[in-house]
Write a structure and sequence with these properties.
The complex is a heterodimer of chains A (114) and B (111).
Chain A (H helix, E strand, L loop, with lengths): L3 E4 L2 E4 L5 E7 L5 E8 L3 E10 L2 E4 L6 E3 L9 E3 L8 E8 L9 E2 L3 E5 L1
Parallel strand pairs in A: 2-11
Antiparallel strand pairs in A: 1-3, 3-8, 4-5, 4-9, 5-6, 7-8, 9-10, 9-11
Chain B lengths: L2 E3 L4 E5 L4 E3 L2 E3 L5 E7 L5 E7 L5 E3 L5 E5 L4 E6 L8 E9 L2 E4 L3 E6 L1
Parallel strand pairs in B: 2-12
Antiparallel strand pairs in B: 1-4, 3-9, 5-6, 5-10, 7-8, 8-9, 10-11, 10-12
The chains are: A mainly beta (114), B mainly beta (111).
């Protein structure tokens, strides 16, 4: 089925470890983004991309890196994990950069940093 | 920068009763407004959206929302709640490639 696929669904890391959350979409969407969801804070934008080779920072980019080498993939990298990065991460995409476009969300990746 | 406030963290409603979730936004121009719903352990699903025109918009699952520019509000309503409406609801405002979300309102439905 077409959609946004996130892997892994669950991950436990130790402080200082690195990892990559994968996000792939098969809808030829131009716009992709990463959000983190924390209790009482809703979803906050980490990074976004308006096309292959183009990325930019959102509200809470510190501690995260992204790249967009293909239209389909938008991985999120944690270079040195910290307990403050314990969260649920959502990848979302839309057809274009028009803010009226509806986002399609992945099922989420729950990350725990000990 | 845009922002969204959802004043109610948690609402409990009886099955069959009406539901209203509040949303206030801050944005300098005409906003693009959305309501999303998140069931436990799931991603977010769009309920409805407002861009322009008729200020009362209909969505899926029997939900509707009314845009009031004078109050900077976009409240979500449902006349009769079903047990399956128990979820977390997020209001969002979209502008300049970015969608900003409120903190969410958790709805509990009691029998």
């Amino acid at each position: 089925n077409a959609g946004v696929t996130q892997t892994p669904k669950f991950q436990v890391l130790k402080t200082g470890q690195s990892m990559t959350l994968q996000c792939a979409q098969d809808m030829n969407h131009e716009y992709m983004s990463w959000y983190r969801q924390d209790p009482g804070m809703g979803l906050r934008l980490i990074h976004y991309s308006v096309g292959a080779g183009i990325t930019d920072q959102g509200e809470v980019p510190n501690g995260y890196n992204v790249s967009r080498s293909t239209t389909e993939d938008f991985p999120l990298r944690l270079l040195s994990a910290a307990p403050s990065q314990t969260s649920v991460y959502f990848c979302a995409s839309s057809y274009s950069t028009d803010s009226r476009n509806v986002l399609t969300f992945g099922a989420g990746s729950r990350l725990t940093v000990l | 920068a845009q922002s969204v406030t959802q004043p109610d963290i948690h609402i409990t409603v009886s099955e069959g009763a009406s539901l209203e979730l509040r949303c206030n936004y801050s944005y300098g121009a005409t906003p693009y407004l959305f309501w999303y719903v998140q069931s436990p352990g799931q991603g977010l699903q769009l309920l409805l959206k407002y861009f322009s025109g008729d200020t009362l918009v209909q969505g899926i699952k029997g939900f509707e929302a009314e845009f009031k520019r004078s109050q900077s509000s976009f409240n979500l309503r449902k006349p009769s709640v079903h047990w399956s409406d128990a979820a977390e609801y997020f209001c969002a405002v979209g502008a300049r490639y970015k969608l900003s979300f409120g903190a969410g309102t958790t709805v509990t439905v009691r029998a």
